[in-house]
Amino acid sequence: MGRMTAKPARRVLLAAPRGYCAGVDRAVIAVEKALEQYGAPVYVRHEIVHNKYVVQTLEKKGAIFVERTDEVPEGSIVMFSAHGVAPTVHAEAAERKLATIDATCPLVTKVHKEAVRYAKEDYDILLIGHEGHEEVIGTSGEAPDHITLVDGPDDVADVEVRDENKVVWLSQTTLSVDETMETVGALKNKFPNLISPPSDDICYATQNRQVAVKKLAEDAELVIVVGSKNSSNSIRMVEVALDAGAPAAHLVDFAAEIDEAWLEGVTTVGLTSGASVPDVLVDGVLEWLAERGYADVETVKTADESITFSLPKELRRDLRAEAAALSAE
Q1: 142 part of the active site
Q2: pLDDT digits (tens, 9 = 90+) for 11-43
Q3: Would you say the pTM of this structure is higher than 0.85?
Q4: Identified catalytic residue from 135, 142, 164, 322
Q5: Distance, CA of 121 to CA of 2 (rounded, Å)
Q6: How does DSSP assign 223-274, residue by residue?
Q7: Which long-range contacts (CB under 8 A, 24 or more apart) does 113-117 make?
Q8: What is the pLDDT of residues 116-152, one digit of tens each?
């Protein structure tokens, strides 16, 4: 009787960092605090963050998500999403006498301020980003006469500027770091005097999660990224995994979307999640994988994250007044 061949041990490599970034955490808490403080409904212009589960959970608590400001009844409370809005949206809200809470991620606000600054100095601004993305729409709205969208390296050939000595590039915060730098390289070849922003526009969380997924791709035959189909940073992580050599990589919102056929011949699964994904969804995937023999979980840590952002000033001001009133009772 021949010897039995031992099956290779199945394992999961779990990326760290993963999931919520500081901007998403701040935005989600802001909606919850507004609901606690003012009661339902609280209107939110566009999805507060790009995650199906988060949006559905907040809807059950009383948040109403709308695409346009004119969908919000006059005199109501409206919150602007983490992706930011154009100045015209603030003006629309004022016209409708809406109380506004701005949950724009501070890192997106930084890009907005850069756009305003360079426009005032009469620069042509080349905004690297994806057409139609809410963040790009908001940033472009800060200086529409000065901004040209560059949607990847293939767009560079068609870019025209007024003065090649007064050109600066900015970027959407959730892009692939590698693709963005490829686009920047092509732009610099065309415009040698192109100026870079004072600090990198791609956010720390996007960069950290892409570095982590590259590490997973070194050893995993399959990489699973938990995130929604409209989440730019989640989509980029799948692309980064494949570019880094992972034989397969897939994006799923929930464990139920995983196809068991993906596991055929796979001993090592890499698991991570986008910056707008709560840990409960990753835990669900871990349970699903454990039920199929992937119970050994090893954390792959590539960075420490300690950044936090304070709540929007509108909430902080009201929360302080509420606390003062309670303490005076």
Answers
A1: no
A2: 999 999 999 999 999 999 999 999 999 999 999
A3: yes
A4: 135
A5: 79
A6: EEEE--TT-HHHHHHHHHHHHTT-SEEEEESSGGG--GGGGTT-SEEEEEE-
A7: 114/170, 114/197, 114/198, 114/201, 115/139, 115/142, 115/143, 115/146, 115/147, 115/170, 116/142, 116/143
A8: 999 999 999 999 999 999 999 999 999 999 999 999 9
